[in-house]
Amino acid sequence: MSHATPRVTRAEFALLAALVCWGLFPVVLLLIHAADTHTRLTGADGLVGADGELGGDQLQYLAWIRDASAHGLAADLFRLTDIRRVYLEPLFTISGGLYRLGVPLVVAYMVFKPIAIGALGIGAIAWARRMFGDRAGARAATVALSLFLATPGADLLGWTHVGKGGLAFPLFLLGSELHGADKIWGYVPSAIALGLMPIALLATERALAIAASQRPSRAGRAGPLALATAAALIASWLHPWQGVTLILILAGLAALRRGRGATTLAAPAIAAALPLAYYYVLSHADPAWSLASTYEATKRAPAITLIVGFGPLALIAAPGLRRPRGEMIEQALLLWIAATFVNYFVNDSFPPHAYQGLAFPFSVLAVRGFQRLRLPAIVGWLAVGLLTIPGMVSDARKLIRTFDRPLVQYYLPHDDVAALSWVTHHAPPGGVLAPTPFASVIPSQTGRAVWVGNGYWSLHYPEQSKLVQRLFRGHMRTTVARSFVASTGARILVADCDHRADLSKALGPMLASTHTFGCVRVYVLSPR
User: Fold this and answer.
1) At what angle do helices 359-372 and 113-132 cross, to 10 degrees?
2) Where would I find the beta strands (DSSP E) of 12-111?
3) Strand 432-433 to strand 492-495: parallel, antiparallel, or no bridges (unpaired)?
4) Of 46, 128, 157, 362, which alpha carbon lies 20 to 30 A from 409's?
5) 3-state helix, strand, coil in the chain (%, to 5)
6) How far is CA 451 from CA 78, 446, 488, in A?
7) Residue 401: other Cβ atoms inside 10 A
8) What global pTM score does this model have?
9) DSSP 8-state symbol, 241
10) Same domain (yes/no): 201, 57
11) Number of separate domains in the chain
């Protein structure tokens, strides 16, 4: 077994540069559009969020950061009842500390984007170097596929716009989960976790090799084992699905090795299990996390989706299969694939997230398959291009079309900024009632909780959202409107420019004051 450490090649440097450009692409688009429209960024930079809302997940991240800045632990601010500060997440806690020190919220959130780019790029290069040594072309192809792999089926439906139902969304979701570089777009915790997965496995392999040597050095073994343990802990904490996959891989290694090296394998496995235990307690003890877990217990895709999505990839990877012959990293390679699908079929919390990271083992098998078939180099590179570039172009096109619209999830006009600033600094204490999707930006921009605003984290989101829309469009009778507003427990109502109905008459004696900021109105209710 060779542990040579060949130099990083020009091709790998080029791929790292491409990853940097890809990761910063959304930020550049957002800044350009914000400057052109004279709006302020909310900080959201992802495409798909809670309940299909654009930017929904990132707005929750930002709300957690703002809440953590004041309280250490964060709460779900997309509800007005039973708010509990129970969430500790390393990245959001650090960002919260930066925000408390005066760093702008968006900057405090974005500070981990370069770290995510570095972690993902280093993880991919380390993985390729271990699997292919000094074969520069094979390493570069492996890095490219690990970072930018797309599924032909998802790409085809994306380019041809074949319907919105049926296979379209499940295949889009499958492709999105597989594309590691896309996680830098708004899902920085996931991107860092993905980059740490190969690091954890490679460090475990090194620790096992040292332990198996004739004169193992305790100090020499401690370094790799500490790295494997730390990587497993952080990966699982940032993205629990990676923790489950990693534990399954390590358990499989212990079984295949018949207990040899069990102590070494146990350390990263236990580290990965600790955050999973924490999330399990949260999902059963906290009402907000219990609600989110219920929303995420979605149906698994039909078998045809897996066949169309993974079938072509399986055909490409099949020629690269070979017997591990007792080599730990080769065993881990195959176990990674098996663990991914076990995770998918067993885990009831949004199963598609289990696909993340599958590009790493696939990339190795695909490149080995090209080599085994003795295809001309140009054919191999053409295949790599077809498996990466169409998906990247499709994703970039979606991003441009989305960020070029004046969506409140991403951009706040001057009137919104003025109104939310007043709510933050001058309004009396209390929760906020506002129409969606405008309500989704209020927790992060003001630090206040809202009655409804996020598809995963707001109770009965579809029904509540419709009720709020009726109120702010002026479609509720006076008695119904007053009863509804009183039932929410909100102290402040904020109507954005898309909801211009004057609620002063409907609210009547409930009102303490009304404040106008351009086309935005803020209603302050009298204390009960």
Assistant:
1) 30
2) 40-41
3) parallel
4) 157
5) 65, 5, 30
6) 6, 14, 7
7) 9
8) 0.94
9) H
10) no
11) 3
